[in-house]
Amino acid sequence: MNLKKEVLLEGARDALGTPAAVLFAGMLGFGAMGKANGLDMWLTAATSSFMFALPGQVVLLEMVILGASGVATALAVTLTATRFFTMCLTLFPQFPQKHRSRFYYVLVHFMAMSSWAVAMKDFPKMNPEKRLSYYTGFALVCWGVSTPATVLGYLIAGEVPTYLNLGLVFINPLFFLLTFTEVKPRGNRIAIVVGAISGPLVYLWQPNYALLICGLVGGSVAYSIDKYLRGKQLA
Amino acid sequence: MPETTQLSNLFNDAGVWGALILACVGTYFWRGLGVYFSGKISQDGEVFKWLSAVTYAMVAALTLRIILLPVGLLGTVPLAVRLVVTGLALAVMLSSPKRRMVPALLTGTISLVLYGLLVH
Lengths: 235, 120
What we know:
The complex is a heterodimer of chains A (235) and B (120). With 235 residues, chain A is mainly alpha-helical. Chain A has 12 helices and no strands. The longest helix of chain A is centred in the middle third of the chain and has 28 residues, at 128-155. The mean pLDDT of chain A is 92. Helices cover 79% and strands 0% of the residues of chain B. At the A-B interface, α2, α3, α4, α5 and α6 of A face α1, α2, α3 and α4 of B.
């Protein structure tokens, strides 16, 4: 592991703009949700530190409120986290092979959809030597703001009117939707359209396995269409 | 009997913490597995292209599910309102080829807050 301090700080600085603000708002909203549903403050904060996956945290909170069993809850959360597997498979190969070390197993905990999305967008324009340091700074800031934001959201839950809370819980999904418009490769664009259409529909039919189904089937369809179009261009 | 209530609360709390620990392990499982297999994949290959498509399909499915079929507070907002607000934000984002992320985010969030202010 040879992280360059200046590049790491550059990543941290870039994260401190919109990405950290969006995560901060989302976690603030989640903290308030935890308080409103009578969850323990430490438990609410612990999900942000140790799970650090907002959709999974929301699923956990809902199932705890519904009184679901611990195993059923953990299974449902684990299924929403499947995306991390392919997120890793598409992020880590973009770092130079010589940078690979056990440090990746620590770094991967700090991965969020926002840091992944930014890396996928900016890495092609970035010197490969700089990527690991930049990403480390970026991801650590995203993780770093999340737990304090959750605790703050929990503490001020009573003081925040519902209409402001609405904005806090909406800003995260909206941010991801907007980042999709910045995705360049054609195969990934098709995948976004297919996933966006199939996601809600499949969820109505198979709520637990919807993401897995949409990802594997929808992604493969999108990849095949792109491959077909690439073949046509060459011909 | 207050003691029984306290005791069952304690068991409930233990159950919730147990669920949390299992859920954290389950979440990290996918992260760790991803790191393990990522060493075998080249960023220029076809497998990488396919996996990228699979990931984007998955996160797009998740995002649209949260917006269209939300649970909790967002679910109290009618679908039509959510669609209009999302459409407004997307329109601002796409209004410039350089993409207006911050104005688009503010448009969507502020218009939803204004809706909430009118209703509540």
